[in-house]
Design a protein that fits this description.
The structure holds two protein chains of two kinds.
Chain A: H1 3-23, H2 27-52, H3 56-86
Helix pairs in contact in A: 1-2, 2-3
Chain B: E1 7-8, H1 17-32, H2 41-65, E2 71-81, E3 84-92, H3 94-117, H4 124-143, H5 147-165, H6 172-203, H7 208-214, H8 219-238, H9 245-249, H10 255-264, H11 269-276, H12 278-282, H13 285-308, H14 312-331, H15 338-365, H16 383-397, H17 403-417, H18 420-449, H19 466-487, H20 491-500, H21 512-533, H22 546-552, H23 557-603, H24 610-632
Parallel strand pairs in B: 1-2
Antiparallel strand pairs in B: 2-3
Helix pairs in contact in B: 1-2, 1-4, 2-3, 2-4, 3-4, 3-10, 3-15, 3-19, 4-5, 5-6, 6-8, 8-11, 8-13, 10-15, 11-14, 13-14, 13-18, 13-22, 14-15, 14-17, 14-18, 15-16, 15-17, 15-19, 15-20, 16-18, 16-19, 17-18, 17-19, 17-21, 18-21
The chains are: A mainly alpha, B mainly alpha.
Chain lengths: ~100, ~625
């Protein structure tokens, strides 16, 4: 299979993730969509690593996974705290920090 | 025209600083001693001026016996700066010793009188403290040997005057009068301080001998400027037109204060200043003419006011302005008039203090009533006051042989020989002033002492205690004899000659001008008798002619000040406040409002919705990518 297919899949996944972040209200789902976008990036990195024949993209993919794992830990903790305070996981309900 | 030649003091004069220390000591003790000094404070307050007077007499006689009569007492070096030395020096010469005797002598009498007059006042200690403070400052004024020391005394008497006018500060009118006196005096003081600065800039010195020595070489322009600035200073302190408005209100103070400060001594400081500065005036006929004009205007101005006032003290205050106008006129005549200005000043110290103390005695007897329309027929109830008041009355209107005749007529006569044709106008106006003087003083005599009793129902007048009558008796003797003593045989003239020079023309006693003055005075007496003696005086003031109405309102002096000076000043203030608010503040405020308003609108972008932030991030990223593509292509 040509690497173009991988890149195309990566774009599709990224757009799905992006649209999900923008249109979904449930924080868990938004979170999952962010993960989807990260993984779309990972896929693109790996595909380009294959195209260029070196390992840089694969190494970066590992870094992204580590960062994503850390992010999940912190993000889910914040989500738990918000849910406890406001009895809701909707991102639109947590809107106090404004003008 | 003379210049000062001084030598270091010898003998008793070395201790001249005692003159200042005596009253200053009493002032410090009384003003800081608190209630402990209540019992004996007034005794100290009397003893110290008397001690100063005794020393003054000793100094006078040792000066008489000394061939060198201008002696300098060096106390300490006050401002020793390279090229500019101001010493705290006292100058004891013929002129200052005259003032020392007047201030301490009349001052002692008035302070003795105050013991009786103020006996019921709970604040008597403060009164005596202020009076002694005044005496110390006034003595410093006349004893200083340079303009800066004089200025210290000048401001000191201004302060004492302020404190004493406002002595009954619980009365709003007294507090306002004190402030008015202080503020009006400030205008005059500005003139004097500018004169001192000009002396320093031009001659590099402010001492009398230094300034008088170099004023000739400074040119007549500088001398004229100095003369006019000194005249402005004299106008403020001596209540001359146009700075006359404070003196009538100053009568809010206790009557002994009016007698000492606002009749006998402080208000004559301007005349002292002008006479002391005679070498400056000598080379500037323009400034001399201005001095004479101010004096003439004031002597009529004060006289007209005195004619209309029903308050006995205010009428006397108008009279004081008028008499000081004569002195200023005398000072404006040059060598012709200096000695007579001083003679009138000394004689006036006696008779005007006598009149004020007499008025105080009447006010005391009539339970603080000051309206002459409520007096009448008092002569048999206060016989001693009546006689002393009457003698001072004869002195002020210039009946021979009382002192006014000897001292005022030479000034009137001098007008006709000095200042050319204009001098004739001044002389005729001064003659009219003599008639006015006789009119208002006779009016006062008739309204107070003669006619029907128009008293308040509860009034029961009584003669004052001896502590008040004796000073009046002594002053009455002075009113009778002082003029003759000073003028006959040219005693004062010869005594003062080294300081002020000799009048170029010898004065006779019954000169044409003197006879006209006497006739006019008798006419004034007759007119007053027709208006106030022959017909009964109504106890309510009639409406009177427009001139009377104007004179009751101080010839619109206050209205003039308000409309010409105060109102435009307020407008200027309002204009600058408006400019500050709208212009300066407006610029700053609108800039701040612009920033604030803009950011207030931009703030609305912060909605708090995470998804909209995400959208803007995506949009931004998309724009960046698009830009990158464009740049690539």
């Amino acid at each position: 299979m040509s690497p173009v297919h991988y890149v195309a899949l990566s774009v599709i996944l990224f757009v799905i993730g992006g649209v999900g972040v923008l249109v979904r209200r449930n924080a868990i789902v938004v979170f999952m969509c962010i993960e989807l976008m990260l993984n779309a990036c990972n896929l693109a990195f790996v595909a380009f690593a294959r195209v260029h024949g070196n390992l840089d993209g694969q190494v970066i993919a590992f870094f992204v996974m580590v960062v994503a794992a850390a992010e999940v830990v912190v993000g889910l903790a914040i989500l738990m705290a918000i849910f406890r305070a406001r009895r809701s996981a909707s991102v639109d309900d947590a809107n106090l920090l404004k003008y | 025209m003379t210049t000062l030649h001084t030598v270091a003091a010898t003998g008793a004069l070395k201790l001249s600083w005692l003159l200042l220390v005596f009253p200053l000591f009493a002032a410090v003790v009384l003003l800081t001693g608190g209630r402990r000094t209540d019992r004996w404070g007034h005794l100290l307050g009397v003893a110290m001026p008397v001690a100063a007077f005794v020393y003054g007499v000793i100094a006078f006689f040792s000066l008489l016996g000394d061939s060198q009569r201008s002696q300098d007492v060096h106390l300490y070096s006050w401002i020793p700066v390279a090229g500019f030395q101001v010493n705290m020096n006292l100058l004891v010469d013929q002129l200052s010793i005259c003032f020392v005797l007047l201030i301490t002598g009349v001052g002692s009498l008035i302070i003795i009188y105050s013991v009786g007059y103020m006996s019921h006042d709970t604040d008597r200690r403060r009164f005596f403290g202020y009076m002694n403070l005044f005496l110390a400052a006034m003595l410093l004024l006349v004893l200083g040997d340079n303009y800066l020391v004089l200025y210290v005394g000048w401001e000191g008497v201004g302060l004492a005057s302020y404190l004493l006018i406002g002595f009954w500060y619980q009365r709003p009118s007294a507090a306002v009068a004190a402030k008015k006196a202080f503020i009006v005096n400030r205008v005059g003081d500005a003139g004097l301080s500018l004169a001192i600065m000009l002396m320093f800039a031009e001659f590099g010195t402010v001492s009398f001998s230094g300034v008088f020595g170099s004023v000739k070489s400074g040119g007549s322009g500088v001398a004229t400027a100095l003369g006019l600035l000194l005249l402005l200073g004299a106008c403020g302190k001596s209540a001359q037109v146009p700075l006359q408005s404070w003196l009538l209100d100053a009568m809010e103070g206790p009557t002994p204060v009016s007698a000492l400060i606002h009749a006998a001594t402080m208000v004559t400081a301007g005349v002292y200043l002008l006479v002391r500065s005679n070498p400056i005036l000598a080379i500037t006929p323009d400034a001399r003419l201005a001095v004479a004009l101010v004096g003439t205007v004031t002597l009529l101005f004060g006289g007209i006011i005195a004619c209309a006032k029903d308050d006995i003290k205010k009428s006397l205050a108008g009279s004081t302005m008028s008499q000081i106008g004569y002195m200023t006129l005398g000072a404006g005549l040059g060598p012709e008039g200096y000695v007579f200005a001083i003679a009138l000043l000394l004689a006036h110290g006696f008779f005007k203090a006598g009149l004020f103390l007499g008025a105080g005695s009447v006010i005391h007897a009539m339970d603080d009533e000051q309206d002459m329309r409520r007096y009448g027929g008092l002569s048999s109830f206060l016989p001693i006051t009546y006689v002393t008041f009457g003698l001072a009355y004869l002195a002020i209107i210039g009946i021979p042989p009382f002192s006014g005749f000897f001292t005022k007529d030479p000034i009137i006569e001098g007008d006709f020989t000095e200042h050319g044709a204009g001098g004739w106008i001044l002389g005729i106006l001064a003659l009219i002033g003599a008639g006015i003087t006789a009119f208002y003083m006779t009016r006062m005599m008739l309204m107070t002492w003669q006619g029907k009793r128009r008293w308040a129902a509860e009034a029961h007048p009584h003669e004052s205690p001896p502590v008040m009558t004796w000073p009046m008796i002594v002053l009455a003797i002075g009113s009778v004899g002082a003029g003759a003593f000073l003028i006959i045989n040219d005693r004062l003239q010869d005594f003062l000659a080294p300081v002020v020079g000799v009048p170029p023309v010898e004065h006779g006693f019954f000169t044409p001008a003197g006879i006209v003055a006497l006739v006019l005075a008798l006419a004034g007496v007759a007119l007053a008798w027709l208006m106030y003696g022959r017909v009964p005086v109504p106890s309510e003031a009639p409406r009177g002619s427009p001139l009377t109405v104007a004179a009751r309102k101080d010839l619109y002096g206050d209205a003039f000040n308000e409309s010409v000076l105060e109102r435009p000043g307020q407008w200027l203030t309002r204009l600058s406040v408006y400019f500050d608010n709208r212009g300066v503040d407006g610029l700053v405020n609108s800039l701040a409002a612009l920033v604030g308003g803009t950011s207030g609108r931009w703030r609305k972008l912060q909605t708090g919705f995470v998804r909209s932030y995400a959208l803007s991030m995506f949009a931004g990223a998309a724009v960046l990518v698009a830009l990158l593509l464009v740049v690539r292509l």
